[in-house]
Amino acid sequence: MGVLDENWFLNARLKLRHLQLFLALDEQRNLHRAAAQLHMSQPAASKLLNDLEANLGIRLFDRQPRGLTPNWYGEIMIRHAHSMLSTLRQTGEELNALGEGNAGTVAVGTVMAPAVTLLTSAIERVHRDRPGLKISVDVDVSKALVPRLLEGELDFAITRIPAGFDVERFVFEEIGEEELCFVCRQGHPLTDKTPLSLCDMVDYPWSLQPIGALMRQRVDSLFLHHQVAPPRQIVDTADLLVSLALVDKSDTITVTTREAADLLCNPQRFHLLPFSETLSVQPYGLVSLRHQRLSPGAAALMSTLREIIAQSG
């Protein structure tokens, strides 16, 4: 394999059909089924792939008796094919929006706390000047948001960059930490317990974010630090509403951000358990791809977020 220059895709005669074939092969792992998915004949699909590999001087897929498996080169092509096709779909959405008299589309992801106050304030302010801007918001954990940003499904995110991702691919603008709190129902046996320790809480059922999520790691490390065995009964869910429903109907305890608790936990139904330590998780921030230019609508929303962050600071 020679060194590819900046116009390698032109020299290799890369086509949109190649990108579609990569995605179909990633899903099917079989040339016949991938060709059928694209409404092509198998010989045509085989020629398309073979010609590209010949032009590149690289084998992208390992041929096996039962199908094709992407090698490292193929995995790179598949990953970027996802991103490029997602970008093209977003281009069509923006063109349609402008043609319909709207102001484009924005897809943003966020961890819990910013979705409650920061992002909602920014959306309200942006819509004053751009009432036709179509904004979609996905609330999830950082480990789920960052891959979607890399795939091109999100314009930017308010999140953290989890371990294992190349930080050089991102622009990170720090906002702040998320303060955490313990929540139970009003009338819970621990409501009037003071002072409160982890040992007091450990025998009750808990509802927590899945193992590996940042908030869950913070809770697990808290039990480890205090040398207290973790609760035996834990429901794993990333959905705060599911956790609050369990809390409301039982003696379950959950952990959420202070902002989310202030918004969602009616004091007549829920109680924030006092704890001697201040709990928080590492800072989150505005995260975008370093070499990606934002659409006008996404740029406007991010600019408004920066204004609100500066004012609140």
What is the CA-based Rg, rounded? Answer: 24 Å
Count of alpha/pi helices: 13
**Overall residue-averaged pLDDT value:** 88
Which structural category do the helix and sheet elements fall into? alpha/beta
Extended strand count = 11
Q: Given the C-alpha coordinates, what overall shape results?
A: globular
Distance between the termini: 52 Å
As residue ranges, the low-confidence spans are none
How would you describe this protein?
Strands 3, 4, 5, 6, 7, 8, 9, 10 and 11 form a 9-stranded mixed sheet that branches. The protein is of the alpha/beta class and 313 residues long. The chain has helices spanning 8-11, 16-28, 31-37, 42-56, 72-99, 112-116, 118-129, 142-150, 198-201, 214-225, 240-249, 258-264, 296-312; strands at residues 61-64, 67-70, 105-110, 134-139, 156-159, 170-185, 206-208, 234-236, 253-257, 270-273, 279-289. A hairpin with a 2-residue loop joins strand 1 (61-64) and strand 2. The longest helix has 28 residues, at 72-99. Helix 2 (16-28) packs across helix 5, helix 3 packs across helix 4 (42-56) and helix 7 crosses helix 13. It is globular and about 75 Å long.
Give a short summary of the structure:
The chain is 46% helix and 21% strand. With 313 residues, it is α/β, with parallel strands linked by helices. The strands form two sheets. Strands 3, 4, 5, 6, 7, 8, 9, 10 and 11 form a nine-stranded mixed beta sheet that branches.
